[in-house]
Structures are given as C-alpha cells and as structure tokens.
DNA sequence: GATGAATGAGGGTTCATTCAT
DNA sequence: TATGAATGAACCCTCATTCAT
C-alpha cells in the first residue's frame, strides 16, 4: 500500500478531467475513468460519492473563482453611477481577463464548466455569466438611449443578444483552442470587433 | 376510441419534438415520447422505424432546404471572381436570410437540427455551416490582407473564429427567441456589428 | 363485402404457407402474412385463433394423411410374422411412396411439416417417422442377427442410426428440391444405396 | 460471496452452452442464460461483449480446428490427379475422422456449430462441409461416369444429394449420440453403407 | 367482416452504483 | 485500501395478440 490516498485521488481526478473533457458530464463513463486511473470503478466511490460529486470536486475551485470574480464585477457595476461607454468596455475586459486568467490556470476545468456541464448542477454557469454581461449591456444601452434609463423591449432584447453572443463566442473560443496566447488573441479580437462595431452602430444611430 | 392515424402520428411528432428539444437526440427517451403522446413505446414503431427515423422525419424538410440553400450560396461563392467586401456581406446575408426563413417555418426543428442533433446523422450540420461561413471569411481576409491570398496562421485562426462565432451566435439567437421578427432584427444587428467591426478593424490595421 | 369468407381464408392460407416456408414457424411473422394476404394482422384472428392454429390448419391434412399411412404400415409390420428382407424394403418403399405422393399433392406443406415446424406442436413429426422406420430396421436387424430377435445395444444403435439418417436424408431431399420427378429419382437412388449397401454389409458380416 | 472470475465465466459458458444447445443461437435468451448461471443479464456483459461474442468464444476453437482440417483436405483433393475411388473414400474418412475427433473433444460445441448456428456468423459451416464433400463426390461420379469428366444434370444432382445426405447424416449422428466410441462406430457404418452401396450401384449400371 | 391502433411481454444491451471480500 | 462481481433500472426495439371502431 505505498500509494497514498491523495495520490490516488489525484489520479482519479486526472482521469476524470480527461474523460469529462472528451465526452461531457452526461456521456462520461465511470468505468472509463476508473480504467484510465488504473483502478476499478468501485474504488472511485471511496473517494467520491457519485459522478456528480466527482464532477463537482473538479470544477468547484474554478467555479468559485469565477463566481467570486463575477460578484466583484457585479458590485462595481451596481456601485458606479453615470458610467461611460469605455467603462462598460472595461467591465467587459474584466470579465474577459478573468476568464482568460482562469483559463491559463485551469483550461480544461473552465472548458468543461462552460461547455460540457450539461446534465450536472453546473449546467447554468454559462447562463449566469450571460446574465452578468447582460447587466453591463443594459447599462451601455441605457446610457446611449435617447431616453436614458428607459429601454424599449427591442433594445432590451438587443442587449440580451449581445450579452449572450459574446459569452457564447468566448466559450467557443475556449472550446476550440488549446493555446493560451492564441485564446487571448482571439478573445481580444472578438471584443474589439464587438466594441468598434457597437460604437459605430451607436454613433450612426445618433446622427 | 379510434383515433385517426394522422392524428396519432402528429401527436407522436409533437411529443418527440418536445422531447428532442429538451434532451437532444441522444438523451431523448422513446418511453418518454410515448408517454407524452399517450401510448406505449411499441406503438411508436408502427409509425416510425426507429429513433433515428423519427428524428429524421422531423428534421428532413428543414435539413433539405438548408442544404439546398447552402449549395446555392457555395456555388455563387466559387463562381464569383474578384469579390468585394460588400459581396461577402451579401453572402452572409443570404445565409442569414435562409436561416431566418427556415426558422419562421420551423423554429423548433431548426433549433434541434443545429443545436441538439449530436449522436444522429445530422450531427455535422452546424459544422458544415461554419465551414461555409469560414470560406467566405477567408475570402474577406484574403482580399484585405497585405499580401492578398496569403494568410498568416493567425489570420486563418481569426477568420475561423469569426466564422464560428457568427454561426454560433445566430444559432443562439434562434435558440433563445420565439418571435420571427425579433429574430430577424437581432440577427441583422449581429451582422451589422460584426461587419462594421471588421471594417473598422481592417481600416485601422492599414493606416 | 363482395369477398367471401372462404376466399379470404384461402388468401390467408396462401400467404401463410409462403411465409412459413420461407422462415419456419418460429420466425414467421403474422404481420408479413397479413400484408401478403392484403389485410391487417387483426383480421387473421377472425379466421384463426393463433399462429399455432393457423399453422395447424395448414398442415393438418398432410399430417393426418401421413399419420394414417404410417399407422397402416405400422399395423402391417406388427401383423406380419417371419418377414424377409425384401419385405422390409417394401415397407421402406411404402413410406417412401407415401412421402412422395404427399409431396406431389402438397409439396410445401410436407416440407414445412418435416423441416420447418420447430417451435410448433408438429415439431415431433419427423421423430415419429424415424421411430416407425426404426421399428422396421429393428426387424431387419433382428432377422439378420446371429441370435434372431436379440439385438445387442450396438445393433440397436445401428438400426436407430439407419432409420434416422434415411428419414433425415429424405427430408433433406424434399427441402432442397422443387421438382417432383427429381425428388422421386433422388429418393429412389438414396434408398437404393442404402439397401444395396445394407445388403452387402449384412452379407459380408456373415461370411 | 466473492466468486472467482474464471469460475463465473465458466458458469456462464456452461449455461450458455445449454441454452444454445436447446434453442439455437437465434432463440437463445441472454436473460435465460443469466438466470441459469445465477446472475443478472448485465453481468454477462462484463465477460462477453455481446451474444455473438459469447457464442463465438464457445465455438471458436472448434471452428478453427474444423476449418484448418477442411483446408488441408481441400488442398489434398485439389493436388491429387487421377484419383481412384478408394482415394475418394479416404478423403471422406479424413473428414469423418476430423469430425469425430472434434466431437470427442467438444461434442456440444460441434453440435451447435453444425446444427444450431443459424443467425450467427457460423451459419454457413455445415454448408461449407457439404460443398467440400460435394467436390469429392463430383470426382467420384466423374471417374465412374461413362464419359469421364462430363456429368449429366441428373448425375450432378445425385452427387449433390449424396454429399448433402452424408453430411446431414453425420451431423445427425453427432446430434443424437453422446458416446464417442458409439459415434465412431455409427459413422463408420454409415460410410460403409454409402460406399458399398455406391460401388454396387455403379457396377450394376455398367453391366 | 374488417380495421389498425394499441398493448405487454419479451428481446439484447448499457451503466452508475453497491458491497462482500 | 481496493477489488470487481453483481445489481437494477434504464435504454431501443420487436411482435403476437387484442379490441374499439
């Protein structure tokens, strides 16, 4: 018994991470994980109560950091009055930076958390991020609207769309790329497109 | 109570559509569909040969229309020389228009086809659309590049990202909205943002 | 309602015969039969109580004729004392003739009865025929044995083998040939081989 | 009560062998096998990938030996010119000896392989054997024919019949007897009858 | 007399999970 | 601590049979 408990646990996590990344939560197989970890399925249950539990333990740290960062940003948003466009962009960039930092630290976990958690308790994380970005967007639109603070349903839907597509796009970039620098570059470019586009759009509307 | 065959078939389709929309092809359960349609599972097989067949019968029309439209657009792209930026946008708008028209006719089906068809024979549809858009993007980038026709790996990755995120975003809009006019508006806005953004970006790079 | 009941019944029988011939009792499908008969499965059950019943009604006549002929032959065997070899052969030829006559009248039914009735109540028919032929063989062997009437286990097993293989071979010929004359020829040839062979064998043993 | 893996596997094989012997491949039920082996169906799949796999693992050794022996015999046949009748008989006896040896080692398996493999990948084995014997028979008939090498359709059908009935008869003997010595005796007797019979038949035809 | 929709029990198979060892 | 055999519920699917119409 020279294998310490922690070492075993780590090997399970490593195997599970790979399996979840490849097949997502729902289609991941406990047997595969056990095999890859060099043990039998039953033993996993000495370390984790269930598939959900194992999944949770892997993603919990990333999830918490993400939640915390989102909480901070949310507070800043709620606390700031008379925000300007570039401030909004700065919020976006904060989110962006958070995601990229998390990605650099835990690329696989973040990828799984955002893109492969269907069927688990984390399935809503992406939606939460969207909601946050949406809040920013509503402010942006609110500032630029003819009647500040009063958004038409169309404008609300538009803001929601922008929030969703930005988040979805960032998730996609995380999903389809492995290299951290490449991801940073692509996300930057994405935000650049959105921002300049949004700026142009707004300018055109008011002239 | 003798129910007419068509009525039963329709009730199966309704139930199946709902089940597929909620769980996707892979996780949809024939038992659930049967229950929702008010019958036993075996009876479904009087109307449809298999789960795949049921899935196919629901999506086939939308799939064919989409494929046909994509084929036409592809031919136009391949056939046109010395394309200009606005032409590229017109291609995008054609794709956009196709999707929106299909969505007006069969919103749920298109949604399932693009977002929930994993595990079925239609699993590649979204990827095909991305590939098509990517082809357009490569032309756009190629035209604007300093050395026309020669794209750096970064530029290629960027084009690929734009293609993917545009398609993903359109899918998302289709997924999260029910009203056809709203969808049209949001997709227009999305493309507007992307195009003006891309234009700005390119202009800035060359000055 | 211009289709008389009998006509419908006959069309069911025709379809059933074909299906049973092709797939045997066990794998025959009531749906297929109904379809081939131009009706729905349920209707068959107005004419026949079950698959077994339908099967039985098709084979009953042939079965009865066969049973009757076998009974007659059995009586002759039991009634004749001090039978000679050629008489035994005549019994074999009677069986042979019976089968061939039945085949000429009802080739498909006999084929099904003997070769494709597994799973039905007729599954034992071939065995019954074997038992009859075996009885003849036991007499043949008994007559030729050194101690008439007393057969060693080996001789009993041998007789049993000959009975089985003859019947099995005849069934095989029925199974693999369609033409009545060809069948007669082949069965004759088979019996000729067996009889001459048996005769030789016996002669050699006693010299 | 932890049972050793091999013991369980063996109990599955035992149960499966009995089930396949009783119902054949197609109608054998995995649930029945599981019950007979004292477990639930799912557990069988820890030991065998599928019904086909289980079937194959039971029959593979016998199948391979049979195939190898048939290959050898076929080569000898193809390689020998101007064969005589007694040589043909020697080929038959080789086949005979092979089957009997295999039967001594694996009676049930051989029985299943030859008689109960419909629906599996082994379904053609008996037919292959018949084809091989037929090849021998065609040579026999060819040698004895008035115009050597030219067989009338009747003669061809006759040869085919002899080949089929011999193989069918040997299978039957294997099927209905358990004792190896008894089987050997019966098959010898069968071939003896056939050969002497064939010889007589030919002699009579030419005088 | 005929329909055909519907059932229910069974088919092979998968897999997260449990537990005696 | 670790095993891995075993379970049980679920999966998709088939088919003889029934019965309201």
UniProtKB/TrEMBL annotation, chains A, B, C, D:
Task: List residues annotated as DNA-binding.
Answer: 29-48
**Keywords of this entry:** DNA-binding
GO terms for MF: DNA binding
* Database matches in Pfam families: TetR_N
Q: Where is the HTH tetR-type domain?
A: 6-66
Protein name, per record: TetR/AcrR family transcriptional regulator
**Source species, please?**
Paenibacillus whitsoniae
Q: What is the lineage of its organism?
A: Bacteria, Bacillati, Bacillota, Bacilli, Bacillales
């Amino acid at each position: 018994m020279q294998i310490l408990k922690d070492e075993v646990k780590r090997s399970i996590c490593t195997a599970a991470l790979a399996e979840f990344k490849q097949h997502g939560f729902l289609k991941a197989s406990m047997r595969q994980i056990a095999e890859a970890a060099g043990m039998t399925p039953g033993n996993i249950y000495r370390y984790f109560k269930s598939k959900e539990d194992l999944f949770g333990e892997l993603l919990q740290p990333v999830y918490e950091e993400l939640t915390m960062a989102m909480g901070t940003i949310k507070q800043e948003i709620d606390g700031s009055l008379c925000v300007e466009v570039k401030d909004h962009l700065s919020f976006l960039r904060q989110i962006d930076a958070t995601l990229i930092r998390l990605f650099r630290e835990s690329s696989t976990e973040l990828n799984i958390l955002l893109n492969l958690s269907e069927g688990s308790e984390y399935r809503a994380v992406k939606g939460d991020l969207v909601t946050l970005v949406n809040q920013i967007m509503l402010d942006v639109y609110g500032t630029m609207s003819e009647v500040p603070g009063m958004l038409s349903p169309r404008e609300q839907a538009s803001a929601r769309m922008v929030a969703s597509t930005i988040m979805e796009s960032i998730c996609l970039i995380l999903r389809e790329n492995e290299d951290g620098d490449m991801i940073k570059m692509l996300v930057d470019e994405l935000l650049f497109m959105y921002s300049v586009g949004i700026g142009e759009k707004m300018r055109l509307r008011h002239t």
